[in-house]
Write a structure and sequence with these properties.
mainly alpha; 1% strand; disordered C terminus
Length: 291
């Protein structure tokens, strides 16, 4: 019997050479430039302090700002708080909030399908980093961007995304320069600018790859999402990905008090200070927040 089934093929997308070049520069600067500088000059406590500070700020700019606020509307806040979160997210070099959130909304809507921008069914390396090297014809799809385009702060950040990125790289240079001159500025730029960017990028990529391939599925088996407490340590709570896919609008990815989720603690802290409100949570009458 001759099969009449038509094979499903994923359309070929053109390579984005600018992204390939940019990611290559960040990678080479981290794996070659950072250790070479350490060998000849060593890093000061200021360099390491800036690395830790900017890692936390930029990572939570993504988790709290891009992800839970813009993509999922897990809480509300004033425009100036939103603007600060989107500046911090922009420093992570993960595209503007408009493009990031629209891709993430599509990821949830079409998870594990061809339209999923970081489809884990195509393998670990594709979902981890390979997907960024190709142009996405759906990046401005009205279906996924219409709500985002109604937000003036999102449009502002999208318009000034490049200056925001550059300011995030200039900040560690200026701090290092003020502490130890030109050599100090270059070292802080390498470690807290380039190296930190590489680390934040790859920790975020782990959610797309590891948390769709390895881990547990205690909350839903509707897609490939999985929980990984190890990834949560790197991503400030985003590793509880299976829970997140089951309850997308919950401001907590780790719902239990003992789940390591600093992003939920920051959001809750903002609410206590009157800077955030309308925090969404699953079954609030049965699940009492305890941080």
């Amino acid at each position: 019997m001759i099969s009449t089934t038509v094979p499903v093929t994923t359309p070929t997308r053109p390579c984005n050479y600018w992204i390939v070049l940019l990611f290559s520069l960040v990678t080479l600067g981290t794996v070659i430039g950072v250790p070479i500088y350490a060998y000849f000059f060593d890093y000061s406590w200021v360099d390491w302090a800036m690395f830790g500070f900017l890692y936390a700020v930029t990572a939570m700019g993504i988790t709290v700002g891009y992800h839970r606020l813009i993509a999922h509307r897990s809480f509300n806040c004033s425009n100036w708080v939103k603007g600060c979160l989107l500046i911090a997210g922009g420093w992570a070099l993960e595209n503007s909030a408009l493009k990031w959130a629209s891709a993430h909304i599509r990821h949830h809507a079409r998870c594990d399908q061809d339209e999923d921008p970081y489809n884990a069914q195509r393998g670990f390396w594709y979902s981890h980093v390979g997907w960024i090297f190709f142009k996405d014809p759906l990046s401005y799809d009205e279906k996924y961007t219409s709500r985002l385009r109604q937000d003036p702060v999102v449009l502002w950040q999208h318009r000034y995304y490049v200056p925001i990125v550059l300011s995030g790289l200039a900040l560690p240079f200026v701090v290092g320069f003020l502490y130890n001159g030109w050599i100090g500025g270059f070292g802080c730029f390498l470690l807290a600018g380039v190296g930190r960017t590489f680390c934040v990028l790859n920790s975020t990529f782990c959610i797309n790859s590891i948390c769709h391939i390895w881990g547990t599925q205690p909350h839903t088996t509707a897609d490939s999402s999985r929980d990984s407490w190890v990834v949560s340590l790197l991503t400030f709570g985003e590793g509880y990905h299976n829970y997140h896919h089951a309850h997308q609008r919950d401001f907590r990815n780790g719902p239990r008090w003992y789940n390591f989720d600093p992003s939920k603690w920051l959001i809750y802290g903002l609410s206590l200070a009157g800077l955030a409100w309308d925090l969404c949570r699953v079954e609030p009458e049965r699940t009492r927040f305890a941080s």
